[in-house]
Amino acid sequence: MITAQNLSKRYKKKWAVDALSFSIDTGKVTGFLGPNGAGKSTTMRLMLGLDNGGGQTLFDGKPLCAHSYPAKTAGILLEAKAFHPTRTARNHLKVLADAGGISAGRVDEVLDMVGLREVAKKGPGKFSLGMSQRLGVAAAILGQPKYLILDEPANGLDPEGIAWLRQFIKDYADAGNAVFVSSHLLSEMAQMADDVVVIGRGKLITQTSVQALVTGSGHSGVLVRTTGQTQAKLKEVLESSRLQFTCDAKGFKVQGKTTDDIGKLLYRAKLPVLELSRQEASLEEVFLELTASSEEFAAKSVAKKGGRQ
Q: Cα–Cα distance between 141 and 75 in angstroms, integer?
């Protein structure tokens, strides 16, 4: 387990990270979410001892620097272009392997894993952002670490690359490791993350499972659709049962109940049912709801002016 305890970082009068604590379990993908400027990258640097600040992060009970071979404990991808531009991709990884006490044979293994074997002899200085991200992932997994810490690893990847990265991350966690990954691609995070840590303005908003987050949202509920003639009656039944619900063109969305609950209610009221289904909130809806008051760079809408007379 990774445990981050009271991480703090201040720039002049502003707290970039403010007494932030959370934990990361093995066998899971933990998503790290927050608006721009929330402090995600700074938090990761604090966790790894790459930035000065308060608090501590323990990897299996001790700081990363206290491990004999840190590269075999935690694999890191914070910056896609973190390589010497004149070295070949293979030599870049060989230097990292030598420094981390890792067998040179592992270099070609990871190049194969990330799909860069054919460009191994080329200098990464001219790599696209997507290829650079793949090289960064190769460097992170070089030591077969128990933990992966990845900051926006999907930046620059094409759809095929994003799909590959998603499956790779899930498989890495399923093998008993832990992956801590930040991303603004919430649709991707919803498909691969088991848990999420959400922060805003450097403070913890919530840490929970993705399932609990979306299920507990007010955007989730049971959709009920009946015939036009019985809409008013259905509304009366829901109100008399003191249920929380909203109504739109699709029908009635009832919060806090299961489809079984609503089905039994409608059966007793002898109302026809055209549709009865569970409607889960999207991770994007829940994220925007949670961070609504934490956005530091919120854009303002531009009012349209009337045309000239």
A: 6
Instruction: Give Cβ neighbours of residue 177 (< 8 Å, ≥ 6 apart).
Output: 26, 27, 145, 146, 147, 148
In angstroms, the CA 251 to CA 293 distance is 30
What was the pLDDT predicted at 238?
Answer: 92
pLDDT confidence of residue 297: 55
**Whole-angstrom Cα Rg for the chain:** 24
CA-CA-CA-CA dihedral for 168, 174, 175, 176, to nearest 10: 130
Q: Sorting pLDDT into bands at 50, 70 and 90, what band is 82? A: confident
Q: What is the CATH number of domain 221-279?
A: 3.30.70
Report how far residue 290's alpha carbon sits from residue 267's, in angstroms, rounded to the nearest whole number: 36
Cα gap 74→181, rounded to integer Å: 13
Q: Which CATH architecture has domain 2-210?
A: 3-Layer(aba) Sandwich (3.40)
Q: What are phi and psi of 204, to 5 degrees?
A: -70, 130
Provide the 10 A C-beta neighbour count for residue 236. Answer: 12
Can you tell me whether residue 143 is helix, strand or coil? coil
